[in-house]
Amino acid sequence: MVIDRVKVISDLSQLTVSGNSDGLIPSYGVLLQQLPASFWNTFSERMLQAATGDLRQAAEVLLENAAAECGYHTGHGIVNSKEFEAVVAPMIDSHPEDMLHGLYCVFSSWGWADASIVDLDPGHRMVVHARDYYEADILSASAPCAFMIRGVSRAFMDLAYGAPYPDGLGRYKCTQTMGIEVGDPHGEFVVTPL
Amino acid sequence: METTTTPIWTSAGATIRYTPEHRFDSETMRHFVNDVPTVLHCHHYATLFTQLATDAEQLGGPAHLVEAAAEAFYRVLSEYLESHEVHERADRIAVVEQYFAFAGLGTIRFEIGPRTASMVLPHSHIDEGWIERWGVRDKRVNYIGEGYVKAAIAAVLDLADWHHVAVEETASIVCGASASTFVASLEWQEGRDGN
């Protein structure tokens, strides 16, 4: 069975999320929060504007690393969650490839991006297209700057093909070859081994 | 001899409930809460952004984090209070307290006076997320919370600008305190509604 993207996104995007009596959202093995997208974009934009020369590259690496850590730990929580087990697991035939496709459905249902895998050479290369994503709202971009999708994408490859959790992060890199924020029709992200 | 009492405004007596209206746009895969694009992220992401800010202090990292939070939350809170016609001060404070918890940032209680304010956070996503990831430390980390406090006070008092709300974190869960505390000094002129 192939992953039914429309069904998975439809099922998972309607989940109501709200803080508990402590104002916290413990879920998927992490603490979640739901903040305005503009907050994340504004901070990234200000940091990139402030960092010039070598510092700019360092800032980009750190922004991507934040997303990679997020994608790795939260992704692990997602694939081991009862929601994933109920909605996605019954559709999985080929492991871990179908799990990866399922993760991008969750990725989309969480509001990170309208993203899916368009090419996958298991363990070696993955190409992801994102037709919309909140980082595309960064208006001052002079170069592709979807650090969140970059980091999460390489983390998902680590989850699929890296060492068992929690020791598998860092085997892959992600190159963003296209970006809506620089005028392209969609974002393109190519994940390959380091 | 006539004496005057400095008023302290809290959410006590408020009956209003913050009501998030959630919408998922299946065309763009974006979530909207009360028409504001909103995304879910985890404590790893928030605390690594915070670490990036503190590591880049020479680039103004902490200030950028505070200001990005204040800008985003001021817009969210002000628009909500206006569109839902929340006028009573206790109700306005209740809304900003409830939104903080709804967003997963923890719990916060405001006591606001004419020129000063104090806030107590029994729970803090940033502090508890930091401890979960790295353990306790001797320096504060809740710059997002500081931005929220600036925005919330400005929104409650209907100030046109959050920049004149000076905020200091005086105790931090991440440093071992049982609750985080903030104090604010209010440097505003008259509010838009004459307060």
Architecture of chain B, CATH level 2? 2-Layer Sandwich
Number of domains of chain B: 1
The helix/strand class of chain B is alpha+beta
Order of helices and strands of chain B: EEEHHHEEHHEE
CATH superfamily of chain A: Trafficking protein particle complex subunit 3
Rg of chain B to the nearest angstrom?
17 Å
**Which strand order does the major sheet of chain A show?**
3-4-6-5
CATH architecture of chain A: 2-Layer Sandwich
> How are the strands of the biggest sheet of chain B laid out side by side?
4-5-7-6
N- and C-termini, Cα separation of chain A: 32 Å
| Topology of chain A as a string of helices (H) and strands (E) | HEEHHHHEEHEE
- CATH homology group of chain B: Trafficking protein particle complex subunit 3
| Alpha-beta classification of chain A | alpha+beta
| Helical run tally of chain A | 6
**What portion of residues of chain B belong to β-strands?**
15-25%
Might you state the CATH topology name of chain B?
Answer: Muramoyl-pentapeptide Carboxypeptidase, domain 2
Mean pLDDT of chain A: 93
Topology diagram in text:
The complex is a heterodimer of chains A (194) and B (195).
Chain A: H1 5-13, E1 25-27, E2 30-36, H2 37-50, H3 54-79, H4 82-87, H5 97-109, E3 113-121, E4 125-133, H6 147-161, E5 172-178, E6 187-193
Antiparallel strand pairs in A: 1-2, 3-4, 4-6, 5-6
Chain B: E1 22-25, E2 30-33, E3 36-42, H1 43-55, H2 61-83, H3 89-102, E4 106-112, E5 116-124, H4 125-134, H5 143-156, E6 165-171, E7 180-186
Antiparallel strand pairs in B: 1-2, 2-3, 4-5, 5-7, 6-7
Helix pairs in contact in B: 1-2, 1-4, 2-5, 3-5
Give a structural overview:
The complex is a heterodimer of chains A (194) and B (195). Chain A is α+β, with helices and mostly antiparallel strands. Chain A has a single domain, classed as Trafficking protein particle complex subunit 3 (Muramoyl-pentapeptide Carboxypeptidase, domain 2, 2-Layer Sandwich). Chain A has 6 helices and 6 strands; from the N terminus they run αββααααββαββ. Chain A has helices spanning 5-13, 37-50, 54-79, 82-87, 97-109, 147-161, and strands spanning 25-27, 30-36, 113-121, 125-133, 172-178, 187-193. Chain A has a 4-stranded antiparallel β-sheet, covered by helices on one side. The radius of gyration of chain A is 16 Å and the shape is globular. The two termini of chain A are 32 Å apart. Chain B is α+β, with helices and mostly antiparallel strands. Chain B has a single domain, classed as 2-Layer Sandwich (Muramoyl-pentapeptide Carboxypeptidase, domain 2). Helices cover 38% and strands 23% of the residues of chain B. Chain B has 5 helices and 7 strands; from the N terminus they run E-E-E-H-H-H-E-E-H-H-E-E. In chain B, the strands form 2 sheets. A 4-stranded antiparallel β-sheet of chain B has the order 4-5-7-6. In chain B, a hairpin with a 3-residue loop joins strand 4 and strand 5 (116-124). In chain B, helix 1 crosses helix 2 (61-83), helix 1 (43-55) packs across helix 4 (125-134) and helix 3 (89-102) runs antiparallel to helix 5 (143-156). The chains are: A alpha+beta (194), B alpha+beta (195). Chains A and B meet through helix 1, strand 2, helix 2, helix 3 and strand 3 of A and strand 2, strand 3, helix 1, helix 2 and helix 3 of B.
